[in-house]
Amino acid sequence: MTVAPISGNGGESSERAAHAGELIYKHRLPTRLWHWINAVAIMVMLMSGLMISNAHPHLYWGEYGANLDQPWWSPPHFPGWATIPSTYNLALARHWHLFFAWVFAVGLTGYMVVSFLNRHFRRDLTLTRRELAPAHLWQDVKDHARLKFPTGQEALSYNVIQKMTYIAVLFGLLPLMIVSGLSLSPGFNAVLHWPLDLAGGRASMRSIHFVASGLIAAFIVVHLVLVLLAGPYNEVRSMITGRFRVPPDPDAEQTPREHWLPQALSEPLRRLFARRGRGDVA
Amino acid sequence: MSGILTRRALVGGIAAGAGTLLSGCDRLGQNERFQALLRTGEDANYGLHRLLQDRTALAEEFRPDQRSPVFRANGTRMPGGDDYARHLASHFADWRVPVDGAVAHPQAFSMAQIRAMPARTQITRHDCVEGWSAIAKWTGVPLKLLLDRAGVSPQAKYIVFHCADPQSNGTMYYESIDRIDAVHPQTILAYAVNDELLPVQNGAPLRLRVERQLGYKQAKYVQRIEAVASLQGLYGGKGGYWEDAAGYEWYAGL
């Protein structure tokens, strides 16, 4: 096991103790740059991907699958507001999809290389033994369920569920999208064939590509909801300028955390998730 | 902050923002310069494939039991026009396929001659641009044999396939491939599918199989093969019916 940094030892660059209310430098430039390039690339690929799905909205398992074969699932027809372009045009959707595939793949590769070199992964994504202790994990699950966000020093580093999610997305889902996407290409299959063998055929690989894209969409939804709940202004600013205001501890100060975001949005969500733990959080 | 951000403002803002972005994407997609930018992706993909692929790297071939129960037909199922009807009635006895253009010895091949030439049989997967796939067994003559007899000029960069099926916009179906795919061992002019003579819906009497590319490159009803230095002067100039009519990629390896 590698010696991992102690949790709470700062985000990407802050080493010293931070005080509530203080503006600190949280996200470094390569991370911020990649975040936004990747956000655009993924949105374009998801939406043009839905248009491509509309061209043949049936998913099969195995080597082949066409109209006369049995699909395991037929996705719905995706409406114009969810697709690029908004009216049926498979050729144009493919141009968008296959161009931004390069942006996505080159961006991800560049981010990976830089994040290994500048030790972003090691400092911020390495799981410590303490974090993986069942009691700690369970506490983090409970905090998430009650929408209790870390404050003070703890808000500067990723929590354990956050780390595990980022690890799964960065090293699992995103590379899987690239490999499964490349494997849908008959030209690429003539070069590298084992991914298709592993998946059990092209129709299977197409299903995997679709399901994995759905998981990415789900990640984005949860990510955005959490940004809104944690304080959209502070979170978005930290991803643009890098500066993050250390959230005050609700026990120590008069301002409860949930007042940082629109009450109309936070209350229904809190009621939904935190029914049982209300007394604890307040 | 909470005073500024009401739920209505938030939902309205997201909807308006998404709407603007979407119509922006549509406008961008129609902009010629942006389309040219997107199309650099096609050039990059073509370049990458040609860089990584061994020229003779084969598409996967399958066992007979891995075939689709039914190999579906797509596109033209019955070419219009009296000429094709006459050929069909005479079982293509007079079907001649000229190989001409930038070649040293232009010549025409009858179906009898083509069937008498060395044949290749392959069980391969047909991948449609729409996303479906089907596996079938194809038998035909390697295109290279015809091209070698005609002696393709070094100036010819593309091989064009002129087809007998008129399309709804009034032009005839056609397709083209580069010289690398033209001499690839799996590139054949097939006259049989799953051990039967090609039915009309699958391109009787002769269709192209170029196995490392998508379905719309697999031209059916091939009635003339032409070697050319450039695709500019042909039909819409983009090298194929779907390329001209709807903007699909000429290089359909992905």
If you had to describe this structure to a student in words, what would you say it looks like?
The complex is a heterodimer of chains A (282) and B (254). Chain A has 282 residues and is mainly alpha-helical. In chain A, 57% of the residues lie in helices and 2% in strands. Chain A is built from twelve helices and two strands, in the order E-H-H-H-H-H-H-H-H-H-H-E-H-H. Chain A has a two-stranded antiparallel ribbon with strand order 1-2. In chain A, helix 1 (29-55) runs antiparallel to helix 2 (90-117) and helix 6 runs antiparallel to helix 9 (202-230). The longest helix of chain A is centred in the C-terminal third of the chain and has 29 residues, at 202-230. Chain A is elongated and about 65 Å long. The two termini of chain A are 39 Å apart. The mean pLDDT of chain B is 94. Chain B contains seven helices and ten strands. Helix content of chain B is 30%, strand content 24%. Chain B starts with 6 loop residues before the first helix and ends in an 8-residue tail after the last helix. Chain B has two domains: 7-48; 59-246, Alpha-Beta Complex (Sulfite Oxidase, Chain A, domain 2). Chain B is globular. By secondary structure, chain B is α+β, with helices and mostly antiparallel strands. In chain B, the strands form two sheets. Chain B has a five-stranded mixed β-sheet with strand order 2-1-10-5-6. In chain B, strands 3, 4, 7, 8 and 9 form a five-stranded antiparallel β-sheet that branches. The chains are: A mainly alpha (282), B alpha+beta (254). Chains A and B meet through helix 1, helix 2, helix 7, helix 9 and helix 11 of A and helix 1, helix 2 and strand 4 of B.
